[in-house]
Amino acid sequence: MEAIPGHSGICSPAFTVSPSCETVAVIERVVDFERLRWMRCGRCSHEWDVDSAWLWRFEQGDEACPKCGTNYEPLDRPDSWASQEDPSHDDTKVRGTFWYHTSTHSNWPDRAFDPTAGLTEVTKRRFQRSWADGHGLGRWAESQKTKALHLGTYEAAVENMLRRMHEQDCAGHQFYLYRVRLSQDAMIEPGVHRELPGYFGDVQLGEHCSDDIDIFRYVNTYEDPSSISLAVTLEAINAVQMIAIPLTVDVEDVWISAAAARLVDAASRPPPEPTTHFERMQRHRPSAVSIEASRLEEEVATRLPLRLRDWFDRLSDEGNLKAEPSTFPSKLVGLSTLVNEPLAVLESLNTVPWREV
């Protein structure tokens, strides 16, 4: 198999200052998708660190708390927690560190954001009827405008995008990576907390802290587990840089060219004949080109950290696979580069001017 580009595993240097940030010296964390994670048992309060392989075995039921033996099944099971050594316990370091966010919006955050713009007339009428006073749409729109924005580490932002692509049918959407500089006078809620409950991250900070608070720290248990993420008000954000992701890659690369040729060949073949009882029961058999795309996903995923591999599938659209076969291999390499070549991504961000919010 040809070598897949973009897999040197180089991480960004620890605690560097962005040359693009001229007004305030802001720290860039080291990027390390394979770093140790901090765990805390909900039953016995034991704390310890683990690697990504341990986390994967834990989710399969093959690991448990080393002190009391509690596995992943009970409500008081072990879960990700933030180490006391994490610099983000310090308010000054929270304001003095870059934070990240991924979005399908090219102008995030937007003070003129209209949450009703993408709704159909039928949906708008349903919202209106959802409140007895007939103002359901306005109330919902206001709640969307005032909900907290979520920021995290570079790793958390990239993992959030991969999870959305895998679980929320967003694989065909254009994503953007934002680097965020916080306001130096933003007020921070004391302490680091459990992640606030909310549907798709919809959180109103005013329901959990006083009105003067701009930043609420919480332990991220889904993306970049055990890292500290932030729920913030719009006023907490001073400025952002943005690039479209994944980055453009060399379509003439040997692996990409060979992968595109495999897709072209597969597109000319009929679906393979079913060989198992399950396959014979399928109403819609996958096409030869979609099967080949899944194989390409597996090849690239094997170069990713174990935790991320399950998210690296169902990223293709059959129409595009047939129309532009070189696009999909380029997309796979570009996505893997976000994980395996973060320096290239950060250097690309360094070339973009800051936009004040």
Would you spell out the secondary-structure blueprint of this structure?
Layout: E1 16-17, E2 27-28, E3 37-41, E4 47-50, H1 52-59, E5 78-80, H2 91-95, E6 99-103, H3 121-129, H4 136-146, E7 149-151, H5 154-167, E8 175-182, E9 215-220, E10 227-232, E11 237-245, H6 254-267, H7 277-281, H8 288-301, H9 318-323, H10 327-340, H11 342-350, E12 355-356
Antiparallel strand pairs: 1-2, 3-4, 3-5, 6-8, 7-10, 8-11, 9-10, 11-12
> What summary fits the major beta sheet?
4 strands, antiparallel
Helix % is 25-40%
Number of helices: 11
Overall body shape: globular
How much is the average pLDDT? Answer: 85
User: How far from one another are the termini?
Assistant: 47 Å
What fraction of the residues are assigned to beta strands by DSSP?
A: 15-25%
Radius of gyration: 22 Å
Count of DSSP strands: 12
Written as H for each helix and E for each strand, in order along the chain, the element string is EEEEHEHEHHEHEEEEHHHHHHE
> Structural class, from secondary structure content?
alpha+beta
How are the strands of the biggest sheet laid out side by side? Answer: 6-8-11-12
| Uncertain regions spanning at least 5 consecutive residues | 7-22
